[in-house]
Amino acid sequence: MRNFLRARWRAFGYAFQGWAYVLRTQRNAWIHAVASVAVFALAGWLHLGRLEWALLIFAVAMVWTAEFINTALEAIVDLASPAQHPLAKVGKDVGAAAVLIAALAALLIGLLVFLPPLLAILRG
Fold it and tell me: Of 81, 73, 86, which Cα lies nearest the Cα of 26?
């Protein structure tokens, strides 16, 4: 049991190392970080309900997950193909497209969640 717990603890450490790598090396990750903080701050200010929070958490997690997978894919492609290759470009471009799709979906979710209460506040 003790070895199992140590292994789980180490696994969390590796995950946090990966997270730190993404934040250290990926400029778009900082955009995601600022956007995430802004989304959660606005949700708190608007006192959104549980369903709205769940949708926002899902959308933010989807973008972060896509960014992490894209970063991992880029590293693997660079390892497998240090020289430029058309298929390496395809792999990297498709990974970037996945992040874009996730970000656009998150933007639409944010608009659907935030617009009604913000418009209600503006209307008085």
Answer: 73
Half-sphere exposure of 20 (CA within 13 A, CB side): 6
**DSSP characters over 72-108:** HHHHHHHHH--S--HHHHHHHHHHHHHHHHHHHHHHH
Provide the annotated active-site residues. 67
- Report the CATH fold assignment for 27-123: Helix Hairpins (1.10.287)
Rounded-to-integer distance, Cα 33 and Cα 45, Å: 18
pTM for the whole thing? 0.90
- With H, G, I as helix, E, B as strand and everything else as coil, classify residue 49: coil
Give me the count of residues in the chain: 124
User: What amino acid is encoded at 88 in this protein?
Assistant: A
Q: pLDDT (tens digit, 9 = 90+) per residue, 22-68?
A: 999 999 999 999 999 999 999 999 999 999 999 999 999 999 999 99
